[in-house]
Design a protein that fits this description.
Blueprint (H helix, E strand, L loop, with lengths): L7 H7 L3 H9 L6 E9 L3 E2 L2 E2 L6 E9 L4 E9 L11 E12 L4 E13 L7 E10 L2 E8 L9 E11 L4 E12 L10 E13 L2 E10 L15 E9 L1
Antiparallel strand pairs: 1-4, 1-14, 2-3, 4-5, 5-6, 6-7, 7-8, 8-9, 9-10, 10-11, 11-12, 12-13, 13-14
Helix pairs in contact: 1-2
């Protein structure tokens, strides 16, 4: 049930992969470079909804920055959708795109991501195209899937975020997203919901620590009588090299 368009420390915080690739691509070097990351999060939330039955997850990825704005990458995480005997164990994402900045300082990113799920016979794989614009510390994002997770039909995601630099090199990140579905399949009786996150983070060399409040406006009934959609406080740590 993974869904994302942020930084997967943003992923550690809000449960989303791409930002990691996006931020890496936006600071491309003169030539190709390879980077990797591994981390742990107390609850893997993607667009506000738990992907691990509110439990912890180990996550990691590899990114190739071509040095000209083009990037490729893969990212994986433990998941738990509480199916019981036919349980999905892992999510693995594959993505690629192009990111850069205009002469006037407007950052942009466009790309494609494929979400695959391993360990179950359930039909959960899906794809998205995405794009984002950033001006200073503000950003806007968009994603579209022609057939969302678990064959839920067409899906649109609109997001906005703002980052603040606090004292002692601490960051404060605010984000919100509007999830729009063509059909009332993904949620029980609703075709849209809002997710949000407020997170603080600090880096110590290659180690990044984060804490965040993540939630949605989804009711318990719409969330299939689970607590996966309720507001919660998360903690995460990731090491990059």
């Amino acid at each position: 049930m993974g869904t994302k368009l942020n930084n997967k420390i943003a992923a550690l915080v809000s449960g989303s992969v791409l930002a990691m690739a996006i931020s890496g691509a936006a600071t491309a070097a003169d030539g190709p470079s390879l980077s990797a990351n591994v981390g742990v999060v107390s609850d893997y939330r993607f667009r506000g909804i738990s992907q691990t039955d509110t439990g912890p997850a180990i996550q990691g990825g590899v990114d190739l920055d071509m040095g000209n704005g083009v990037y490729l990458g893969t990212w994986a995480s433990q998941v738990d959708f509480a199916y019981g005997t036919d349980e999905t164990d892992y999510e693995m994402d594959f993505y690629g795109g192009y990111a850069g900045e205009t002469a006037s300082g407007i950052g942009y990113d466009v790309g494609y991501i494929y979400y695959s799920y391993l360990g179950s016979d359930q039909d959960e794989d899906y794809q998205e195209v995405y794009g984002s614009l950033s001006i200073g510390d503000a950003s806007l994002g968009f994603a579209y899937s022609d057939d969302y997770w678990y064959q839920a039909g067409e899906f649109y995601y609109l997001s906005a975020g703002y980052s603040f630099a606090l004292a002692n090199d601490i960051s404060l990140d605010l984000s919100a997203g509007l999830n729009l579905f063509d059909e009332e399949i993904f949620l029980d009786g609703s075709d849209s919901y809002i997710d949000y996150s407020v997170s603080v983070g600090k880096e110590f060399g290659g180690l990044a620590l984060s804490a965040s409040l993540v939630g949605t406006d989804v009711s318990d009934q719409e969330c299939f009588y689970t607590d996966w959609c309720e507001p919660t406080v998360l903690a995460g740590a990731t090491y990059s090299w």
